[in-house]
Q: What sequence folds into this?
């Protein structure tokens, strides 16, 4: 490869032909699980108005402050490549009047997203996520169902060493009171905090629980916990979610330090991790966001959702590096002379119309090399077009017979049928 050869940007990657089968299998399994539970597919644009994320995700979050790809279009509008999927789904929910449908409105997506993050294994600047959102109901069963669906998906895809961490952030009032307590605590110990944690005590103090800074972690070990400050309704809701998970025999652990990096979360939050991923152990997670639709200009709408990284699922399940076998070839059409190309082309189209997986010589090879190529493709039959008669060769038995060109497709169909 020349030093001047253009490569993919750092933090992005190519999905090569042999890798696409695992992704297709993941999508098919997700579709079966989610649509079986009443979720419908939705896709939103790759870019949205920047204000959607500034208002919806939170101006103080790392996503908005550091990680968004934002541009100004020809009309002077600020647009952003979507860094996450929930805010766009809520925008579409309002814009298309879905809030008038019977609740809950259940939606799922599989889309690409973009964040400027430090690129490493399992973390990319362009990445894919599968997500599910249920809007319009505050029933704890919505929370429990959402969590169980993601657990089921990961289990069926073979993701191992999975842990479910569960917590509650309470409603806005509970969190406001707790936020003041936590800010006072952090200010008291500010000299021991990492600079970035200290700088956002006023804007986003809960994120201190996510810090990997050793001294900060020591401070947070004794910090007040939001779970101890829940209002009676919030505590009752959280207890109901746990009761339902227990009924479904879903194992979980209560983690009072669990916070999500987006401002819109309320009440239930959860995260699924896999030790198979190493340092980047998060596979997926989400929570309830009962104020987001209202923040975006809609009616008060309780909602619950999650997202999971496609790349991380594939890595944790061991499917990321699996190379899928090439698709079966029922019939390969070779020809002895260039003037027979048109007849070969017509035969391939006829074979495909009959439901056969058919290919033909397309690289100008001599007949011997054509047969070698057919063997590499593991073609079941090879038709060799010649004047005045053609030959059909069974590549498994080695047997071949003279066959009229207009009878080749029928002969292959008959041979395949007899194999069953």
A:
């Amino acid at each position: 490869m020349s030093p001047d050869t253009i490569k993919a940007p750092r933090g992005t990657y190519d999905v090569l032909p042999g890798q696409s089968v695992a992704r297709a299998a993941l999508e098919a399994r997700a579709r079966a699980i989610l649509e079986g539970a009443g979720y419908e597919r939705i896709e939103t644009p790759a870019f949205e108005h920047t204000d959607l994320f500034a208002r919806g995700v939170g101006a103080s979050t790392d996503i908005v402050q550091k990680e968004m790809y934002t541009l100004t279009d020809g009309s002077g509008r600020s647009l952003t490549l979507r860094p996450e999927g929930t805010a766009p789904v809520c925008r579409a929910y309002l814009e298309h009047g879905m809030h008038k449908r019977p609740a809950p409105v259940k939606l799922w997506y599989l889309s690409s997203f973009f964040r400027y993050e430090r690129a490493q294994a399992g973390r990319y600047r362009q990445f894919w996520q599968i997500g599910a959102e249920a809007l319009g109901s505050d029933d704890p069963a919505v929370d429990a169902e959402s969590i169980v669906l993601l657990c089921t998906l990961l289990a069926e895809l073979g993701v191992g060493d999975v842990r479910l961490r569960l917590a509650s952030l309470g409603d806005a009032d509970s969190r406001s009171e707790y936020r003041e307590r936590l800010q006072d605590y952090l200010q008291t110990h500010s000299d021991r905090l990492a600079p970035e944690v200290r700088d956002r005590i006023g804007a986003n103090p809960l994120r201190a629980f996510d810090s990997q800074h050793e001294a900060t972690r020591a401070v947070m070990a004794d910090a007040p916990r939001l779970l101890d400050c829940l209002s009676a309704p919030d505590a009752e809701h959280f207890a109901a979610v746990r009761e339902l998970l227990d009924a479904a025999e879903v194992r979980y652990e209560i983690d009072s330090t669990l916070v999500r990096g987006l401002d819109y979360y309320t009440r239930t939050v959860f995260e699924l991790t896999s030790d198979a991923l190493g340092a980047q152990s998060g596979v997926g997670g989400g929570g309830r966001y009962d104020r987001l639709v209202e923040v975006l200009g809609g009616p008060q709408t309780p909602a619950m959702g999650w997202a999971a990284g496609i790349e991380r699922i594939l890595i944790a399940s061991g499917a990321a590096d699996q190379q899928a076998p090439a698709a079966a070839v029922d019939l390969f059409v070779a020809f002895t002379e260039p003037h027979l190309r048109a007849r070969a082309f017509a035969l391939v189209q006829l074979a495909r119309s009959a439901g056969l997986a058919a290919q033909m010589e397309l690289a100008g090879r001599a007949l011997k090399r054509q047969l070698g190529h057919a063997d590499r493709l593991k073609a079941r039959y090879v038709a060799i077009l010649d004047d005045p008669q053609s030959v059909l060769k069974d590549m498994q038995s080695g047997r071949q017979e003279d066959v009229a060109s207009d009878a080749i497709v029928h002969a292959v169909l008959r041979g395949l049928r007899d194999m069953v």
Remarks:
- The mean pLDDT is 91.
- The radius of gyration is 28 Å.
